[in-house]
TrEMBL record:
<dbReference type="InterPro" id="IPR046947">
    <property type="entry name" value="LytR-like"/>
</dbReference>
<dbReference type="InterPro" id="IPR011006">
    <property type="entry name" value="CheY-like_superfamily"/>
</dbReference>
<feature type="domain" description="HTH LytTR-type">
    <location>
        <begin position="142"/>
        <end position="244"/>
    </location>
</feature>
<dbReference type="GO" id="GO:0003677">
    <property type="term" value="F:DNA binding"/>
</dbReference>
<dbReference type="Pfam" id="PF04397">
    <property type="entry name" value="LytTR"/>
</dbReference>
<dbReference type="Pfam" id="PF00072">
    <property type="entry name" value="Response_reg"/>
</dbReference>
<feature type="domain" description="Response regulatory">
    <location>
        <begin position="2"/>
        <end position="114"/>
    </location>
</feature>
<keyword id="KW-0597">Phosphoprotein</keyword>
<dbReference type="InterPro" id="IPR007492">
    <property type="entry name" value="LytTR_DNA-bd_dom"/>
</dbReference>
<dbReference type="GO" id="GO:0000156">
    <property type="term" value="F:phosphorelay response regulator activity"/>
</dbReference>
<feature type="modified residue" description="4-aspartylphosphate">
    <location>
        <position position="53"/>
    </location>
</feature>
<dbReference type="InterPro" id="IPR001789">
    <property type="entry name" value="Sig_transdc_resp-reg_receiver"/>
</dbReference>
<protein>
    <submittedName>
        <fullName>Two-component system LytT family response regulator</fullName>
    </submittedName>
</protein>
Length: 244
């Protein structure tokens, strides 16, 4: 995996590079000391994995992830503080390693990456259905706890990332499904469903109002009252998509 190391301590970066040497699948393509250095590297190099410190000068690790526009890489947090663990997994982190990094814990984290990359073999007809792009006329089965729905996609106005889950907004229901927003984005018809920012995909047919917003972004109001910010970068794509 193409990997960036982001940590304000040079010695910590060097130590992590040393620990990662035995893992041939980890290709370190760059390093950064802070968010300002990291963001242009992420945009230009398109890494698949970040080893990311949390407490850094300027933007912290969480703020850096929030600032990434478009599809974010996988993340393993590396930090000297254990109080951020819950918040880390709200950001869909693969793992959370405490400094000084233990070689066995690092091995577990690498194994977790490999497990996530291995897909179970399914019958051909199941694979074909799983790879099908879903449009507004498709119906999907949704289960949250004891409740179940068979809902037409055109009724879902908003998909909201909640850590390892996605919250679906339709009618007055807001069930959670165990999916990542990135995986859902790959399955949804891009002519109808638009990635507004790191946390939200909106149904374009549900847009009620559009307003200019901070830093060149847009604020859209959906029928039903949800207000969603379209990031500056995505606002450019949005205008291109919606213009004559």
């Amino acid at each position: 995996m193409r990997t960036l190391i982001i940590d304000d301590e040079r010695l910590a970066r060097n130590e992590l590079k040393r620990l990662l040497e035995p893992y041939m699948k980890i290709e370190i393509i760059g390093e950064a000391a802070n968010a300002d250095e990291a963001l242009p590297l992420i945009e230009s190099l398109q890494p698949e994995l970040l080893f990311l410190d949390i407490q850094m000068p300027g933007k912290n690790g969480f703020e850096l992830l929030t600032a990434i526009e478009g599809k974010a890489p996988e993340v393993i947090f590396t930090t000297a503080y254990d109080e951020y663990a819950i918040k880390a997994f709200e950001f869909n982190a693969l793992d959370y390693l405490l400094k000084p990094i233990d070689q066995d814990r690092l091995k577990d984290a690498i194994n977790r990456i490999e497990e996530n990359q291995v897909a179970p073999e399914l019958p051909a007809e199941v694979n074909e259905r799983a790879g099908k792009v879903l449009n507004e006329n498709d119906q999907v089965f949704v289960k949250d706890g004891e409740k179940c729905w068979f809902v037409k996609l055109e009724k879902i106005r908003l998909f909201e990332s909640m850590g390892n889950y996605v919250r679906l907004h339709f009618d007055d229901q807001k069930p959670l499904v165990l999916k990542s927003l990135n995986n859902l984005e790959e399955r949804l018809d891009s002519n109808t469903y638009f990635r507004a920012n790191r946390k939200h995909i909106i149904n374009l047919h549900w847009i009620d109002k559009i307003e200019p917003w901070f830093s060149g972004g847009l604020l859209v109001t959906l029928h039903g009252g949800d207000k969603i910010e379209i990031s500056r970068r995505q606002a450019i794509r949005f205008k291109e998509l919606m213009s004559l």
